[in-house]
Write a sequence for this structure.
DNA sequence: CATAAATGTAAAACACCCTTTACATTATAC
DNA sequence: GTATAATGTAAAGGGTGTTTTACATTTATG
């Protein structure tokens, strides 16, 4: 599953730590998702979607 | 997290077993999601979204 | 270059999603 | 009303997402 987290985070000029704090997760979670170690939960996907104000489908693709 | 799985399944006149087979999961998974025991994975949420041809956001809400 | 900031790797612990199996309850049809 | 279909409950086990901690590497800044 692909995602645009790294790109979006850079658009917003955020560090992994800043984004992690904003989403209420740890930096490890951000790293793992950005580097495709695993997919986020649906809940976290929605948090990310809300934070970047984009539909889930625009950020995550199978 | 709320979802419209039961409503959608009934619109399509499907049993839990039929929907489970169509999505490649077990009936238990369908039951658990319909009855809000837990949320699906992002992957499964996408499968459901594709199957019912609706955005993930229309089916699942925080 | 040297220092700090940012990113990456690793591994253990825990929680949760999903499966499997088995049985109980509710709804449908004859 | 009884058989059957559909839905629900329960519990154990495997796999995976998230946290925590600690350290290594890369990138940015002076």
């Amino acid at each position: 599953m692909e995602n645009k987290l790294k790109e979006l985070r850079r658009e917003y000029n955020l560090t992994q730590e800043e984004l992690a704090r904003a989403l209420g997760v740890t930096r490890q979670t951000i790293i793992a998702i950005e580097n495709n170690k695993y997919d986020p939960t649906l809940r976290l996907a929605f948090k990310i979607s809300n934070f970047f104000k984009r539909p889930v489908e625009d950020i995550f693709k199978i």
